[in-house]
Amino acid sequence: MTTAVTPRVTLAVAARVLTQLRRDHRTLAMLLVLPCLLQALLWWIFESTPLVFDRIGPALLAIFPFFVMFLVTSITTLRERSSGTLERLFTMPMGRLDFLSGYALAFGAVAAVQAAVAASVALVLLDLDVRGPAVLLGVVGVADAVLGTALGLFVSAFARTEFQAVQFLPAIVVPQILLCGLLVPRDDLPRVLEVVSDVMPLSWAVDAMEQLATTSATGQVWRDIAVVAGFAVAALALGAATLRRRTD
User: What does the pLDDT read at residue 1?
Assistant: First the structure.
């Protein structure tokens, strides 16, 4: 099994994943439609207090792609391993990074569509107030979704069943949602929790979205995007080091 990334193999893995997703209508609906429906539901809940939705709406654009991609990727990768597909793939000249990079590329492409759809729904249909460039909403959404994909690939190595993969949600995802600034501004958190939130990647994505909602300046937004991307690369590297061919 090779260790270097081979573009041809990576693209072949990505094409295979996209073909599978195209045939799986339920997963596509979860990836593309569910974030929009959840946004619309919260908009409806806060219909009488639109300022509340304007405050939490940008954070939701970061949280939903992260959550959905983490869930779908961790379960899909585990299914590949438990069914023996992953072991058969590794009999070919393909490295772990080829596999993981191909998955990240495929889900990144889906994330681009997801981010565009979710941002369009929020801005056009739900009238979310954003002062920064609208296109950057999509960029942050893609970076955040790729982060969710990378973390899903990483944690799938430690699960033996799909149920165990889902159990990582309260351990990996929920604390980040609680501390990312959605419920309480991070500056108002107890000092210890504020420090913890600083090392959680979702916090940086939410910060970027909130910056776009409140100012047209983009310098800090690009910094936050770079941090999120760095976390995603680190998670992919860890995933390559821990990925197993099959479930024992």
Answer: 45
Best CA proximity match to 5, nearest among 93, 111, 107: 93
Contact 179, 197 (CB under 8 A): yes
pLDDT computed for residue 87 by the predictor? 67
Q: How close are the terminal C-alpha atoms of the chain, in Å?
A: 20
> Comparing C-alpha atoms, which of 6, 139, 2 is closest to residue 65?
139
The closest alpha carbon to 158, from 147, 176, 172, belongs to 172
The closest of 248, 244, 208 to 227, measured between CA atoms, is 208
Name residue, tokens 């981010």.
115
Q: Which two tokens stand for residue 39?
A: 């946004």
Express each pLDDT in 6-60 by its tens digit.
788 888 888 988 898 888 888 888 888 888 998 999 999 988 888 888 888 888 8
**pTM score over 0.90:** no
Q: What is the rounded average pLDDT of the residues 157-163?
A: 78
What is d(CA 84, CA 80) in angstroms, rounded to the nearest whole number?
6
SS3 content of the chain, % helix, strand, coil (to 5): 80, 0, 20
